Amino acid sequence: MNKKKLTTLSFSVVPIEEIFMKLRVLSNRPRLRAFAQVFAVVSLIALVGSFSAFAQNGSIHFWLGNLVVSRSVYDNNPNNIQVGATLPPNCANTQGGCSPGATNDGSYPFVWNNALADGSFGITSKIFLDQITPAGALVNSLEVTNSSEQGVPPTKDQMVTSFSSKSELALNLSTDHNYLTFMGYIAPIDAIDVSNSNTPGVVDPTNPVGENSYRAVAQVDQHGKFRFTETNAYSGNNGRAAILNNIGGANLIYTAGNAGNGANPQPDGIIIGAGAQIIDPEVKAEVAQSPGTPTPVASFNITELGAPHDKIGKDDNFRGLTIFDNVVYYTKGSGSNGVNTVYFVDTTGQACPSTSATPGIGLPQSSASLPASGLPYDPAVLQTEGLVPNNLCILKGFPSTLNSKLKTKTTAYPFGLWFANATTLYVADEGDGVLADTGKTPAGLQKWVFDSSKQTWEMVYTLQKGLDLGVQYSIPAPYPTGNNSATGLPWAPETDGLRNITGHVNGDGTATIYGITSTVSGNGDQGADPNRLVAITDTLSATTLPDTESFTTLRTAGYGEVLRGVSWAPGTKQLSQ
Fold first, then answer.
1. Nearest one of 209, 266, 267 to 92, comparing CA atoms
2. What's the CA dihedral at 40, 46, 50, 56 to 10 degrees?
3. What is the mean pLDDT of the chain?
4. Which of 11, 211, 412, 499 shows the greatest Cβ crowding within 10 Å of its Cβ?
5. Beta-carbon neighbour count of residue 510 at 10 Å?
6. Burial class, 319, CB count within 10 angstroms (exposed 0-12 / middle 13-18 / buried 19+)
7. Measured over all CA atoms, what is the biggest interatomic distance in the chain, rounded to whole angstroms?
8. pTM for the whole thing?
């Protein structure tokens, strides 16, 4: 391809992006949805020759205006584990002890019944980044390098996920919108219990998983080129989300996750390696990296609410992560400690003073800036007070009741966040994971609006229509039907709520939000259920639940697959917050 032709092709991206922006609106209007979907496919077929040639010459892999969905595929091999095998790996050499042993071999989906015997059970698997149009048509898939590929020795850069770990593989654009970031493990595929292993630099002898694996952040650019950064954070548990901050001279990564899989009290490294972390991106190959001690960037402790300490470090069990208007936000939606709610990092020290009518609760200040360094915690009081001084606040208006104080199960399980603008925030609620409760809790897509007169956020409604909460859906054969004999409950999954989300503000006063569903079922590990990518268009000005708005299913994971994260493609600056 000569230089002149290459230049022509590069400019042809712009009209396609504009076409799909229009299609996004059309596909949410019932009379035009079918036309929009057909037109999207026809447009791609007509243009695929030009763009495939463009990509093959080392240029664009991800197209502006498209979505990217992270997907994992299980290596369905009965030999992945043998019935009776000791679990977790190397447990006999730890203080944590061993489980009764594997009840099933590695055959999908029966292999996940082993989670009933081994609370740490999981098997690592491949990661794919699926590029799709906003109407749901598949464009291409990019496989993250892994040990199953020919010519990939242990010394070559690679990364995997844990197939049944439902909170992993969130996708986020960097602050300059040119990179996608996500988290995983430096390990081969088919490795057992890696998601609860220690990291090499932070070993907890009470963790029953007697293996060590680095967690890592992957960043990929518009050309499909990867870089990986290892970390000793999240020992005993998993990293869940990452965002690269690379504007204004910055070059650092914020991450969200959880740490610890052993007894209390936890080692210092577990406490400082949990929750909100800050990491310097690496340029070296994985084998040349030497990660040091984890660096927390923020912390919350229930003592900020006037409550006594609970299990140190477990208040920072974070799942969702986003950046909006120079502020970093986190969500906590699981665990019996802390508060399930939405938090923000206060870099001003003025947002939520410890002595006020609502200690630990506040609003970001206009002078806020993105964190540039780690939290200056006092190592002398880690075991008694945690990471003090604490600099995370509960966003005013969001739940602030301790999980341990709720008389009934909490009805707040926040996960993904997306700001449509400064006064409209959408929060994904994944549900409580209990099959009998599906559709009975207010899970789905919460819409929060900022009331300037009261200076607080208020939830105006939850979008659920079209999610079919509590309704079984079938997975094509050979997925089993009927009940799982190990649990006595149906194999068929039901949607329980939403996890990771992203969105776009349309020109007609609406916003289209895309989300990954959570599931419940009789599977031994519900995180292994094939789930869905859905979309809905909401009127931004609405403050009462519109009857006409409904979710549409764009993609369903197939046999041996799960969907995890969703984002705009790298380089899509005008479509994402």
1. 209
2. 70
3. 89
4. 499
5. 20
6. buried
7. 70
8. 0.90
Q: What is the mean pLDDT of residues 293-319?
A: 94
550 exposed, middle or buried (CB, 10 Å; 0-12, 13-18, 19+)? middle
CA distance 164 to 123: 7
Instruction: List residues bridging with 173 in a β-sheet.
Output: 180
478-511 pLDDT tens trace: 999 999 999 999 999 999 999 999 999 999 999 9
Query: SS3 letters for 411-424?
Result: CCCEEEEEEEECCE
CA distance 360 to 387: 15
pLDDT tens figures, 68-98: 999 999 999 999 999 999 999 999 999 999 9
Nearest residue to 139 via CA among 128, 130, 148: 130
Q: What distance in Å separates the CA atoms of residue 152 and residue 159, rounded to the nearest whole number?
A: 11
- Under 8 Å between Cβ of 256 and 232: no
Residue 347: which H helix or E strand, with range?
none
What are the beta bridge partners of residue 535? 514, 552
Q: What distance lies between CA 335 and its chain's CA centroid?
A: 16
CA torsion sign, 374 to 378 to 384 to 385? negative
The tokens describing 569, both together, are 């493609």
Comparing CA positions, the residue from 146, 158, 127 lying closest to residue 189 is 146
One-letter identity of residue 326: N
Q: Which of 520, 469, 516 is nearest to 490 (CA)?
A: 520
Sign of CA dihedral 154, 155, 159, 161: positive
Q: What is the DSSP pairing of strand 361-362 with strand 392-395?
A: parallel
Q: List the structure tokens of 61.
A: 């892999």
Contact 331, 423 (CB under 8 A): no
> Which class for 113: exposed (0-12), middle (13-18), buried (19 or more C-beta within 10 A)?
buried
| Residues whose CB is less than 8 angstroms from the CB of residue 32 and which lie 6 or more positions away in sequence, other chains included | 26
At 43, the pLDDT band (50, 70, 90 cuts) reads very low
Contact yes or no for 319/331 (Cβ under 8 A): yes
Give the per-residue pLDDT at 18. 42
What CA–CA distance (Å, rounded) separates 330 from 313? 15
Residue 524 has pLDDT above 80, yes or no: yes
Query: What mean pLDDT comes out for the span 221-225?
Result: 96
